[in-house]
Amino acid sequence: MHDTINQAVKKIKASRSLVFLTGAGVSVPSGIPDYRSLSGVYQGIAAPEYLLSHTCLKEEPDKFYAFVKKLYHPSARPNIIHEQIAALEKEKYVTVVSQNIDGLHQAAGSQNIVNFHGSLYHCYCQNCGETVPVAEYLKSDKHFCGGQIRPDIVLYEEALDEQNVSKSIQAIATADAIVVVGTSLKVYPFSGLIQYQAPNAELIVINQEPLYLNYPHLMVTEKAEVVFKKISNKENH
């Protein structure tokens, strides 16, 4: 185990251009539950997939709003993973492509981020298009113009932002190392991004459960915070 951790740390430190593909597991140490644990929130009423769908937003806005408010964790702070990814930007070209909608990569100081599924922290009125502060949205989803406010996240049945997809593909195609952190890579098209890696690029996977990919990769079956503490250790330089 320690051998794979050390290999991953060396490969990350040796790279010049890095892409981090991050998922819910990155934010768990910050106190944000992963997606699967949300399945019990409305148990017996509807699946989370429906509650986070365009149909629910349009047809049952009150139910949508009640569920989405549970996704906000205002007291959550970036952890060692977010912090070290941001710190690596000072010495390498780093792109973060994240499935997460919690804003913690930004809070840690990362600059070059693709929020693949949008962000809870950008809200707007669907009627007039005005941007609305999150604090106001958490008090009410009704705008003064009469429209309904929503967060700028990609719901089920909605299309991804094409610019986000193309930027992600370009970053992966030009990186010499791709690091998958805290995601099972089961959600498409996010999971399909690794197919665009350059032939000589290193693929490193850090996840508590082993992933079985059709590409050569270094699998580190460990909590991501353990690996990132090693990266921050000065003696590894």
Automatic annotation (TrEMBL):
Pfam families (UniProt xref): SIR2 (PF02146)
SUPFAM superfamilies: DHS-like NAD/FAD-binding domain (SSF52467)
Residue ranges of every copy of the Deacetylase sirtuin-type domain listed in the record: 1-237
InterPro entries referenced in this protein's UniProt entry, alphabetically: DHS-like_NAD/FAD-binding_dom, NAD-dep_sirtuin_deacylases, Sirtuin, Sirtuin_cat_small_dom_sf, Ssirtuin_cat_dom
Molecular function (Gene Ontology), one example: NAD+ binding
Keyword set, alphabetical order: NAD, Transferase
Entry keyword Signal: no
Gene3D superfamilies associated with the record: SIR2/SIRT2 'Small Domain (3.30.1600.10), TPP-binding domain (3.40.50.1220)
Keyword Cytoplasm: no
EC number(s) reported in the record: 2.3.1.286
NCBIfam families linked to this entry: PRK00481.1-1 (NF001752)
Protein name: protein acetyllysine N-acetyltransferase
Organism: Vagococcus silagei
Organism taxonomic ancestry: Bacteria, Bacillati, Bacillota, Bacilli, Lactobacillales
